[in-house]
Predict the structure.
Amino acid sequence: MSAATADVATGTNASGAGATQGAGRRPRRSDLGVALLFILPALFGFVVFYLYPTFRGIYFSLTRYNVLGKPHFIGFGNYTKLFADPLFWNAMKVTVEYVVLNIVFQTILAVAIGVLMQRLTKSTAVRAVILLPFLISNVIAALLWFLMLDFQVGIINEMLAGLGLDRVTFFGGDATAIPTIAAVNVWRHMGYTALLVFAGLQTIPDYVYEAAAVDGSTEWRSFWRITLPLLRPILALVLVITVTGSFQIFDTVSVTTRGGPGSATRVIQYYIIQKGFQEGQFGYASAVSMILFIILAIIAVVQLRLLRAGESDLS
Amino acid sequence: MAGMRKKLGAVVIGLATMSLTLTACGGGGSDSSGGGGGSDGDAIDTSTATGEVNYWLWDSNQLPAYQKCADAFHTANPNVTVKISQFAWDDYWNKLTNGFVAGDAPDVFTDHLSKFGEFANQDQLVDLDPTLAKDGINVNQYQPGLADLWKSQDGKRYGLPKDFDTIGLFYNKKYVDDAGIKESDLANLAWNPQDGGTYEKVIAHLTMDTSGRRGDEPGFDKSKVKVYGLGLDGNSGGPNGQTQWSMYTGSTSPAWTATDKNPWGTHYNFDQPQFQTTITWFKSLIDKGYMPSVAAVTGQTESTIFGAGKYAMVTNGSWSTNALFDTKGIETGLAPTPIGPSGKRSSMYNGLADSIWIGSKNKPAAAKWVEYLASPDCQNIVGDAAIVFPAIPSATDKAIAAWKAKGIDVTPFTNQVTDKTTFLFPITDHASEIYNLMLPALDNVLSGKADVSSLTEVNNQINQLFQ
Amino acid sequence: MATIATPASPTQTSLAAQTAEGTRGRKPINPGRVVAWACLVVIMLVTLFPFYWMLRTSLSTSTSLFLHPGDLGPVDATLGAYKRVLGLATTAEAQAQGGSGASVNFLLYLRNSVIFAVVATAGQVFFSALAAYAFARLRWPGRDLVFFVFLTALMVPQIFTALPNFILIKNLGLLGTFPGLIAPYFFMTPFAIFFLRQFFLGISREIEEAAKLDGAGHLRLFFGIVLPMSAAPITTLAILTLINMWNEYLWPLLVGTNDDSRVLTVALGVFKQQTPNTGPDWAGLMAAVLIAALPLLIVFLLFAKRVVNSIGFSGVK
């Protein structure tokens, strides 16, 4: 996938471009007919379920559109209102906080687990155990941890109290709620990410380390100077997968804190749902999702560069 | 059912109301309703009732009682069959509004005060008055005030009352005994916003830390509380505080009401001093370690924690009676809410009704069924089941008797009605927006992040919605 | 969770490095290696404990569960929760144990989930493979531009398209039906196309040339050679898609409005709110969660090696 995106950006695709020229036996001609046949179902799905609703959403963001009526075009009114809305900015702040925590911890843990697995065991059983949480849905993971982390009757707090420690208001505390939600999602996804890292580590040839050892590099330095840089493409891929997903955090919040306490976990997607679907301000909610869309697009562009930068390292 | 009433504010949480929007997105708003007729002012001819009626409710606990009603109804009207479906709260409203859009909503459904205004505005409900007048149904046969709650701003009647609920003080009998407090004393507690009165004294004494020191004893460690004297129900309670603080703000002096008039007020009063001093006192219970913080109860159901033995007393609604009394290993008692500076107790008063969907393809049978649901015949059956208080006084008495037979004295709830110490749930427009403004603001006040005076600004924001 | 995760990470990293040294040096016992194993075991415990807690809670009695919140074994052990969830208990039995007594039939929801996930996965993988082939191996004007437009769909938040899509499905009269539930996933997802295109790009040109010499057209080439050759990445994609479809929540919540089209994730959410007065029926909920997870767990156990390896594959490619 990393290569695929890079292809698009650079336009130099060795196998694809070379192939068409190489088939010189027949006169060059377009495969348009058969290509249409191949692409038609996907194109249909794309236009109907992605493209059209996207344009509709953009239009809605320029309207006043509430539960009781039809959309009224109002230009950029929703956007001017949005930039003056403290709850919107709070939602942005909380979401970014979540995204950063989620990605940092998930990446660190995944690298740690991946390296541990690579050095200690190739056992499928161990990897299967690590992957297990990925098989259950976010909703289930959230409910389960909500039960376990309850302030008064959760097993984790019972254990803390049993050890004579203070109980922790995981989901309920202003300072702890977002980290807790991030931790639950890290728990669900870290195994998957660790396996990606593990696979990436498999591709680093031993001689690289051996050469480093000959040069007198310690293992610690080798990790920082060889392993991590060579992992860059895979880490970039992890970022692609996690950043877009993390910005759309919703289900975990929805089944646990519902935005509270106060506005501590009112993340952007929850705010959109609240405005659009609870308060019936669908035009306004569409404007907020437009902002989310733009942010994700900017991040995607940045990632494209990141991925391209990652290409040349392992050659 | 009523269970969810306490969520009144939370009503619209989740995706439930998504479909409200969806209705509108359907392009035509409400014109998708399939069935015919029902134009304003037309009485439905219930004498021609025949065929099948689809009826929805959301409380599984009530299903058996209403199934009995349906069976009795069928015996009395062999031409009509009632098919009952039950769905859980969020799902219920989601399906209902989807049904409005898709044209397959039920003929009759259990309706909620926080919802019917919006439904009425969208022309989804049948105005019942003409039919009731034609059939000679007495809308004054219910507990006082209940029937008029279901009149919309346009003066039309969109529901017939089926039940009501009030608030009481549940307590853990063992903890009360251990503390040397007599149960009879609990019936005569008084609170005030200055020192909390006898009410706070009892709460303090019932609170205990992990080393066994009570809340009113020296050395009490409020960071290691084992049993809280008073529970807190899930969050700060938002704009109504039905189970959290409404029984205090309803008994202040001078008297405080949430809105300028009710129903359909257009001005909120969260800026008034008697409200803010009451909230300040309420918060002090948390600061003293007598009541858990908002953080500690986030997402919890109060009865769960009461059942775990962590609360000595909780203020909760009559709908929770069975849940709180049936908990294994805990013996529960019930007392009335405390007397306030006004010299009276107070309780929020709320109820449900049955409504007919405008798109019903079988309005005669639907109307017949609604009239039956609101009649003594059905409400007596419901009363005998001891699950809720039916809206008709004689049926309410049956419920009291049925509970008494189970060893539970529920008069602390019903006395509020007979003593006229109730006030109605505030019904206004913009309910969900107000909830979404007030809940975080009050959460922040109770957790000490904002001063109580910050509610004045929130109140201004709320009142601007009505301009 | 947070407390365990936070401080552990840096230590683990350095330990891993030390351990690596041990491995290379072929010393039989190495303290660093022991500590590293200890870390891995702790991580596995953190992974597994919640699953044990699920099982423990599902075997408890809901009404007394929180009287003994710290008990490591089931509280008042019973199979009642499973009976409730499978609809085998009477209303009275269910309510006595803290259930709602409302009718639930998780076997039906299980069937629905299987239909939804399998059909959506099959269609998505097949049609995405076709399109990926066209993007990777066919030559036609505007190919890269169209591909780029497809790529941008990755950035569109789901919430943005959910509502217009709902209205479309509603207007087609497909609410509460499997076609309505499956349609948006059936024809493509951007990710599936990228994933397979990338693999198709790497297929050796010689094979294709040889087939063309034999007079094979693109259709025969695709079905006869490319598809069989790509069994591994297609299985990988199918498994990943299946996991995602199985766990899908928002869209089925909107469209799967009746019992005949309700999938497990949505049913779990509904089940949680059935007992609002007493709080969730945790034992029943956890029993339901285990039942919901069972099919995936079985698939996982059967294909553990392949799943585990395929995820590595998806990353490297």
Summary: Chain A touches chain C through 132 residues (CB under 8 Å). The longest strand of chain A covers residues 63-64. Chain A has one domain: 2-10+86-311. Chain A is about 70% helix and 0% strand.
